[in-house]
Design goal:
heterodimer, A: three-stranded antiparallel β-sheet, globular, B: Glutaconate Coenzyme A-transferase
Chain lengths: ~300, ~280
């Protein structure tokens, strides 16, 4: 358990907790609350060979694949939904064999994380049997239930080396507050050996206690304040999904591995040594103010996506 | 109130209506992500014939939300506005695993005659195309009471060499979610799954149900499509119901509701460009 009274570090200090070859659980989901600032810092520092696990993801996993940091991918989905479609860097990495595609399914992942949280070697499920996931995951076993006599699937406990989260609020001790869907973040935090987090706003502990804590401080290894840290995914109420920037990302990713390095990774990751430099590169305060304009009502909100 | 003068609907609106028709009143139903036609269908069903539907929104897990408009991605606070409460990821999947999820909606790049779906990969030995993956579909296909399968890309036009890459195929390269029997021939009953499997396949050409052996059977066609055309575009042989119907179309007020909820026409992103111009006459 992590009980130090002050766990605040900077972004380089945060990603120093990720080691070459680690099993990493990335928080958030699809176009919401992805820990993008941490992932960009991770790319600048270069700890690779990562094994990713998670549920439904998009630009976060695609970015790490495009930067060559991923060895294995066990997500249930990696794509840009109907908005842009398949994830180009992820596809290339899997199809070339550089990334081992070890797809999972949401409930299988949930049961594996809960087994770790409960300190059990596995949890059973009925589903999955009868599909090709059985061959893809030789670690899944079946057993005859000693009570009901039915056949069950056993999925082994999953304890990621490190969970990477971006949430709205935190305090110096590492208490975290998530607003809106937590996706699998709470499960990740409880199951993982280490949790590193960025927050939009650091607030005093008493204030956070009053707002309500989602993830208790003793799960959290270190945290950093990183306003705009989920951009271009959403972190409500601060900002909505940046569809325009995601479209630019997608164009570069779809153009090929080298164009992506030169057209996206260089200007937005490698040439931005800090999160502040990144926020300038994407258009400065004007860009972020525009993404905050969803609060003006449905018309302003939908205009962001038109 | 319906907009005055709605005389026609689009293909997208017809698909939303057809998917909505598969939803029973009073059940718990969940839509996943990347499926705006299904999101729209659940809202339409709740607004029309299924007011007691417990609608769980994919990605946000909001229950009975009233979004002001359809967002282009599903894990957006837009989609959980007005929700009565929120489930966690584990609560939703636990509900399904214990038999409380009435219906789920699934798709894939390959659909076989037994309703097995492939959302994972093309190529059996060698990975030829990595697909995004099936999300929770593998779990929910087994656990949900019923499954509606849908695709807006049934049509498989021949390429330059006259070959067709079917969406509805004899065999999936990879089974991501189970239909009525597994590749090695085991039935759902033999596997002991709680759910009863898919009962509908809604496509942009027609609607299939399943016969007693668990094989897809053509139940309806759209007014501008012939049975022969559906055969040409389908990679497996199928029976045609003797009472084959022309697919019903949404009422004008349903069309009006759809247009009001999706001003950005997000649902049309699931359709191919040539299908976005199809129109059908609707009657009040």
């Amino acid at each position: 358990m992590f009980v130090e009274p002050d766990k605040r570090v900077d972004l380089p200090g945060l990603v120093a907790h990720v080691r070459e070859g680690d099993c990493v659980a990335i928080g958030g989901g699809l176009s919401s609350r992805e820990p993008m600032a941490v992932l960009r810092e991770l790319i600048r520092q270069g700890a690779g060979g990562l094994k990713l696990v998670g549920s439904a993801h998009g630009i976060d996993v695609d970015l790490l694949c495009g930067a060559g940091l991923v060895a294995e991918c066990g997500e249930s989905y990696v794509g840009f939904e109907q908005d842009f479609g398949m994830a180009p860097n992820y596809r290339r990495a899997c199809e070339s064999g550089r990334v081992a595609a070890r797809d999972s399914c949401c409930y299988t992942l949930v049961q594996q994380l809960r087994a770790a949280i409960m300190g059990l070697p596995f949890l059973p499920l009925r589903s999955v049997r009868g599909t090709d996931f059985m061959d893809l995951h030789p670690e899944y076993k079946t057993m005859t239930c000693p009570y009901s006599g039915e056949e069950l699937l056993l999925a082994p406990a999953l304890r990621p080396d490190v969970a990477i989260l971006h949430v709205q609020y935190g305090d110096a001790r590492g208490n975290l507050r998530i607003e809106g869907p937590p996706v699998a973040d709470i499960l990740f935090a409880r199951a993982s050996r280490k949790v590193i987090a960025t927050v939009e706003r650091l607030v005093p502990g008493e204030q956070l206690a009053e707002m309500g804590v989602t993830i208790h401080y003793f799960y959290v290894t270190a945290l950093a304040e990183a306003p705009g840290g989920a951009h271009p995914t959403a972190c409500y109420p601060f900002y909505a999904y940046d569809r325009g920037h995601t479209a630019e990302y997608y164009r570069w990713a779809a153009a090929g591995a080298e164009p992506f390095r030169a057209g996206y990774l260089k200007p937005y990751v490698n040439d931005c040594p800090t999160q502040a430099a990144y926020l300038e590169a994407i258009g400065g305060p004007t860009a972020m103010e525009r993404l905050a304009s969803w609060q003006a009502g449905a018309e302003a909100w939908s205009a962001l996506y038109a | 109130m319906p907009e005055p003068g709605i005389t026609h609907c689009t293909l997208g609106e017809a698909l939303i209506h057809q998917i909505a028709r598969t939803i029973e009143d009073g059940i718990v139903a969940f839509h996943g992500f990347g499926s705006p036609l299904v999101q729209m269908a659940l809202h339409l069903a709740k607004r029309t014939h299924a007011p007691r539907l417990a609608l769980v929104a994919g990605a946000t897990y909001g229950v009975n939300p009233t979004p002001p408009f359809l967002a282009p991605t599903s894990n957006d606070w837009v989609m959980s506005q007005g929700a009565e409460c929120h489930l966690s990821i584990e609560e939703l999947f636990d509900l399904a695993a214990s038999g409380w999820l009435g219906r789920m909606f699934l798709s894939g790049l390959q659909i076989d005659p037994y309703g097995n779906l492939n959302a994972s990969r093309l190529g059996r030995e060698r990975l030829a195309l990595k697909l995004p993956g099936g999300g929770g579909g593998c779990n929910l296909a087994a656990d949900a009471g019923r499954v509606t399968i849908w695709t807006a890309a049934h049509r498989a036009p021949p390429d330059g060499k006259g070959r067709r890459r079917f969406r509805l195929v004899e065999t999936c390269d990879f089974v991501t979610s189970l239909g009525h029997r597994s590749a090695d021939g085991r039935t759902r009953a033999q596997l002991g799954h709680l759910g009863r499997g898919p009962d509908w396949i809604v496509t942009e050409l027609g609607v299939f149900d399943f016969d007693e052996s668990g094989r897809a059977r053509l139940a309806a066609r759209y007014p501008d499509v012939t049975v022969d055309e559906i055969r040409e575009n389908t990679g497996f042989a199928f029976a045609v119901r003797p009472d084959l119907a022309v697919a019903s179309l949404p009422a004008p007020d349903a069309v009006s509701f759809i247009r009001g909820l999706d001003p950005l026409r997000v649902h049309e992103r699931e359709l191919r460009p040539e299908d976005r111009t199809r129109r059908f006459e609707v009657k009040g």
